Amino acid sequence: MSARRWAVGTGAVVVLVATGTWAARPGSVDTRLWDQVRPLIEARLAADSDGTGYGGEVPALHARWFCRAEALDLAERGGEVRAGVDTLCLEYGVREGGLVECSGGQGPQVLRLERDPHGGYRVVSREAPPDGAGNAEWTQAHFGFFARAALDDAMPSDALENAARAHFGLPADAPVGDC
Questions:
Q1: What's this model's pTM, rounded to 2 decimal places?
Q2: What phi and psi values does residue 65 have, to the nearest 5 degrees?
Q3: How many Å apart are CA 36 and CA 135, to the nearest integer?
Q4: Is the separation of the CB atoms in 110 and 41 below 8 Å?
Q5: Is 179:54 a contact under the CB 8 Å cutoff?
Q6: pLDDT for 122-132, tens place per residue?
Q7: If pLDDT is split at 50, 70 and 90, which confidence band does 2 have?
Q8: What is the CA radius of gyration of the chain?
Q9: Would you list the DSSP string of 74-139?
């Protein structure tokens, strides 16, 4: 069965999947706003992850966190931004001329930003669901139906691997192993 796309009034795209179930993507996101806040969000995610992975325990790896965020919902009101995002953060290090993945995870988060005096934005808070019990309830309380459906998709790590290779001065085809 081939997939069919249908546009609905909210701007969301609904796709009929071969299994016969419906999967939906969130509505459109203001790309101008997302381009402004995404680098701040990804930097905050990486900074908050620093020191939390296995690579940080092995100084010889020179491990560093790399994070990617995809907007699920984004709203600006009165100089404040609420960004509901799906995040992928991976910790990479270097061993014997190759890249090693030490730690990581993917999951939803809500970040709040506000305008700074210079016209940019700054992250003022970050929320993530609890591990285990309460995770589903938190996610349902913080994200709409279409955003929750998008959370089922795995985020590719290619861009993070490429950024890590560039950071460590490795060739583009350097292999990726485990710590």
A1: 0.80
A2: -90, 140
A3: 29
A4: no
A5: yes
A6: 999 999 999 88
A7: very low
A8: 18
A9: EEEETTEEEEEEEEEEEEEEEETTEEEEEEEEEEEEEEEEEE-TTS-EEEEEEE-PPSSTTHHHHH
